[in-house]
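Entry 14. Structure prediction run on the chain below.
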Amino acid sequence: MKQEKTQWKLFLETLSAAQSEFTFLFLGVICLTLVVSLMFTSLWPLSALYFVWLVKDWDTPERGGRRIEFVRNWRIWGHLRDYFPIKLVKTAELDPKKNYILGIHPHGIMCAGGFTCFNTESCGFAEAFPGMRSSLATLTGLFRIPLFREYLMSQGLLSVSRASLNHVLSKSGKGIALSIVIGGAEEALTSSPGVNTVVMRRRKGFVRMALEHGADLVPVYLFGENETFRQVIFSEGSVGRRLQDLFKGLLGFAPCVFLGDRFGLLPYRTPITSVVGAPIAVPKLLVPTAEEVDHYHNLYMESLSKLFHEHKVSCGLSESHELQII
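Output returned:
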């Protein structure tokens, strides 16, 4: 019999979800404002010293970051997991003597499933895949924000730049599970309840990276990720969509207009199941040709589609649901 949650437990889960959303939306702006504002007060030496150190430390996000296991094991991540709840499902073994690139789909609004499963230990990744070290790559621009970058790196988040990914796959040893949300900002704009659309037909950089390093490819599907918020979808050519595309081109992300639970502010409590597929063996090719990249890109899309259809019913979808790859 399932044990009923106490009011205190429900409060902690709600608080963890609010903290996660607050961090996602506002913490970067607050950190930048704080550091700049201090320059105009008697505490200006603090900001000055930090900026000197920042210049010296500027390339750290491109060199594996500064991961702190204590932060990845904070209890708040367990409450965030239970809020939805979020579950990690393993379908095959990962060899700790090899490296892997995990493609995460779909992005959703905030990629709660991807963050919780692959950038914290709350869902038991280390137990499910012994010997593997999981990290999630995100927008490079976020690591240019003072103070905020320190918080992101402490969680183990990595820059998604080519230099950063090359460093992780070539100089961090074996047993690396590098997770990348393939669809990015463009995919976030398609996120809506009942929609299973992934953006990847023209996204082949991660495949080329895998070939250059001999890292096997692993598809991952987050069932329920798109159900966490209701988004206002602007039609192509509309003013709203043009503004979103402008932001995406300038900053690498697109502002989404969305509504959730609790006055529209929090994500809906809807289950998210992160299904990790079987690895696709990839050879090491220092200079892969376009044909070789296309071949493994097609294998990856076929594997992702197969994973979706094999698990959609057990994860709450009907047999008629289809995966759209654009």
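The chain has a mean pLDDT of 93.
Filed with the rest of this week's runs.
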